[in-house]
Write a structure and sequence with these properties.
Elements (H helix, E strand, L loop, with lengths): L5 E4 L7 H9 L5 E4 L3 H9 L10 E4 L2 E4 L1 H11 L7 H23 L8 H27 L11 H16 L8 H11 L2 H6 L15 H8 L1
Parallel strand pairs: 1-2
Antiparallel strand pairs: 1-3, 3-4
Length: about 220
């Protein structure tokens, strides 16, 4: 058991979810240690386990890693999800950074003030359908391959699938104008490790509900 990565976070998606996705895609079993109270968070801080006093934190290979991008980069490189050379890694980084920008909008939507929620959601849909998704649709069209980079499975595919599914949860018809992304979603969802992660009972977390917000906020504030 001690050889498995251990994930420290609250019992929800947030910034840890992409890390869960990448480990699952690589077929790596992991443990989770959930913070339930402010005291749980404070204990991690006082023990010196959080380099910048923030989570997520992942214990892996004898390290206590923090900063989401650093953790994701390490997992991707360790499990061969990061391309075969520097040029492919650069492409993957570009695609992933844009996905994470869009994901940030989705993550912050539940905490928007009530009078700003409608406009914030409209902004998300506009950026998804007019800025981000057309790029990935064009990439798939231009090279005619199954994956985004180098015709091999990478973290870019994992993270694109994650954001496509998040987008559909919020707006079921959001991919209507993107047939290649629809095919991509079906294809990547059928990769055995991904398919397993998408099954009920996996460590994938459900969308954060507004009723759960107070409990999460109490952990951090």
């Amino acid at each position: 058991m001690s050889g498995k990565p251990k994930l420290h976070y609250f019992n929800g998606r947030g910034r840890m979810e992409t890390i869960r996705w990448l480990l699952a895609a690589a077929g790596v079993e992991f443990e989770e240690c959930f913070m339930e109270t402010k005291d749980d968070f404070t204990k991690l801080q006082k023990n010196g386990f959080l380099l910048f006093q923030q989570v997520p934190m992942v214990e892996i290979d004898g390290m206590k890693m923090v900063q989401t991008r650093a953790i994701c980069n390490y997992i991707a490189a360790k499990y061969n999800l990061y391309g075969k050379d520097l040029k492919e890694r650069a492409l993957i980084d570009m695609y992933v950074e844009a996905i994470m920008d869009l994901n940030e909008l989705f993550m912050t939507h539940p905490i928007q003030p009530a009078d700003k929620k409608e406009q914030h959601f409209a902004t998300i849909v506009d950026k998804a359908t007019n800025r981000y998704f057309p790029v990935y649709e064009k990439v798939l069209k231009d090279h005619g391959q199954d994956f985004l980079v180098g015709n091999q499975f990478s973290r870019a595919d994992v993270q694109l699938l994650e954001i496509l599914l998040i987008a559909e949860e919020c707006k079921p018809d959001i991919l209507a104008k993107f047939p290649l992304l629809q095919s991509f979603k079906a294809r990547i969802s059928n990769i055995p490790t991904i398919k397993k992660f998408l099954q009920p009972g996996s460590q994938r977390k459900p969308p954060l509900q507004e009723k759960d917000l107070p409990k999460v906020m109490k952990i951090f504030y």
